[in-house]
Design a protein that fits this description.
The chain is built from six helices and two strands. By secondary structure, the protein is mostly helical. Strand 1 (about 85-90) and strand 2 form a beta hairpin. The N and C termini lie far apart (about 70 Å).
């Protein structure tokens, strides 16, 4: 009879470190701030999930996308970062003027999705910027200086 409780204690003692290890691994994933769907224009709300998420991320994390260039050639239309592919203006009253460019440009969305993933992983902005430049510079000239 005594062997059974002792076996249970040993089993629990051996599994306890696994529980702590799992909790530590889960904490390395950072939750992203995302703008509510109702802030987006209907055309964006009806877009594919990856596109909607990129717009939501852009609104809630402007500095993250202002930090990285876009390589789709949109510098020719005045875009200055990946952020400007999604948002033309953030007004003081809290409303936004959205750019529809990213609705039809998978490269803009891919860059935003990469920034989202690296942000989730807890990467620092300079590291994220370097990764975007390394990954996407083969597609064309950047729409902002890459030092």
């Amino acid at each position: 009879m005594i062997k059974r409780p002792l076996s249970m204690v040993l089993l629990i003692a051996s599994l306890l470190p696994l529980a702590f290890n799992t909790a530590c691994a889960a904490s390395s994933v950072h939750e992203l701030k995302m703008a509510p769907m109702n802030m987006l224009p209907k055309q964006v709300q009806n877009a594919p999930t990856r596109v909607r998420e990129a717009y939501q991320f852009a609104v809630a994390n402007p500095d993250a996308l202002k930090n990285v260039p876009c390589y789709c050639g949109c510098g020719a239309i005045g875009h200055t970062s990946d952020y400007s592919c999604f948002v033309t203006e953030a007004k003081e009253d809290g409303t936004y003027v959205f750019d529809q460019h990213a609705l039809g440009c998978s490269l803009c969305v891919d860059i935003a999705q990469d920034v989202m993933q690296k942000t989730r992983e807890g990467r620092a902005p300079p590291e994220i910027r370097a990764q975007v430049i390394s990954t996407f510079s083969r597609f064309g000239p950047p729409n902002q200086p890459v030092n």
